[in-house]
Amino acid sequence: MNNEGRSDRAPPTELVDRAQMGSRSALERVLAWCRPALRARAWGRVNRQRNTAVDPSDLVQDVLLVASKKVHEFQGRGPRAFLAWLLGIMKKRALQLNRFRGLAAVDPHGLQRGSGHEAAWDPLDPATPVPEQAAAREIEERLSRAESWCRDEERELIRLRNTENLSHEEIAARLGVQPPAVRKRYSRAVHQLGQALRLIECMDRHRIEPLVQDAIGLCRFQKLDASAIATRLQIRPEAVQDWLAEYREFLDPTRDDAP
After folding, report:
1. Measured distance CA(115)–CA(118) in Å, rounded
2. Taking the model in full, what pTM does it have?
């Protein structure tokens, strides 16, 4: 597998902060770190069988161009949250590209913003190389797990902003609150998502099973007790209690990074 651009460690949060403040060199370094993950996901976003004129690299370049122009709109914190933001851009750009090329797999009238038909492009293309498929699925699985640990209101804000592509003002009108409140809540939601992604990465390094990770994540980010977690995961409360006791160092909410 080509390890182009892959790094053993994520760029520091301060580098992302500098990119947000307009540093082009910082932005280039952060985007370079994100590129392999974007390329892996791009294989599943481009219908290569029906449109050989479009290459995944084109989609990646398009996402990077959009990000370079709109980096000031990113309101999260840290490289993992930044990568999640880029993947959200990719999902929207892939949908727009497919619609523009006339490759809609569902009724075009059903592709209005927020219709939910965006999932029609989620499956990976069969032509995707096996290593790229594995990398893309790993990214998608981590994002899905991280989102599942966020509170309902946080997931809804992320959906409205990144899937329906609503502005803060539009979200505020829908929720009946002021735009500054939406900005604050959205920033907190993306920050939580970034923390969850870092925690997953750390627990993967410690070879912690996914079910145990879910118990830890739900306790840390949703503040659920063992009984509520057991009900959610459909397992015995005693098992959850044992896991939380064994891995209690992962539950510390004051740590911005996992142990």
Report:
1. 8
2. 0.53
